[in-house]
Amino acid sequence: MQTEQISRRQTLPLCSSYHNHFLERPPLSSMNPYLCIAPDVKLGRDVKLSKYINLYGCEVGDESKIGAFVEIQKNASVGKRCKISSHTFICEGVTIEDNVFIGHGVTFINDSYPRATTAQGLLQTEADWKVERTVVKKGASIGSGSTILANISIGENAIVGAGSVVTRDVAPNAIVAGNPAKILRYIERTAEVSK
Fold first, then answer.
1. Catalytic annotation on 87?
2. Domain that includes residue 29, residue range
3. Does 122 fall in a domain?
4. What are the contacts of 74-79 at 24+ separation with CB within 8 A?
5. What is the mean pLDDT of residues 160-173?
6. How many CB atoms lie under 10 A from the CB of residue 85?
7. Which of 167, 175, 179, 178 is nearest to 193 (CA)?
8. Among the listed ranges 17-31, 79-93, 115-129, 144-158, which one has the minimum average pLDDT value?
């Protein structure tokens, strides 16, 4: 899969529908109209971006790699040297620390009781609900197809098995799996993972 390598000095198209309108500086000649990156996105050094991504109001740390069809919303952050695999959704309020692996099709949730409308029947706005935070600590790995509910902390070097639904905090070095995710065992050696 092709990726685009981006540095802080390079600029990106605002969105595929505006691919002829660029930010302050012209983009790399290899840039394509398949990236939708808002001007308020903070990209670190040597970030690699695949096609068909949507980033706005977020931060991505140095040397991280973002796969195709990933969306990262405002007020979310991805640390350094992370790998975010394709089809993953990282919503507002999610913090992913350094050296984290996120598998394909992982979904984060930031509202425990979502509703489309208010009690008066009007569509909700940002003023009608509060973002619930989620933190994925340094060196953790989340398997493909997992769902991470709101108000969760996944500990350092923890592993979440593919297809899991994480409904509560995961301890550091724990391996969890299932729906709801339960502890299977603990990792004994973590020195290599947490570097």
1. yes
2. 3-111+129-186
3. no
4. 74/40, 75/131, 79/138
5. 98
6. 21
7. 175
8. 17-31
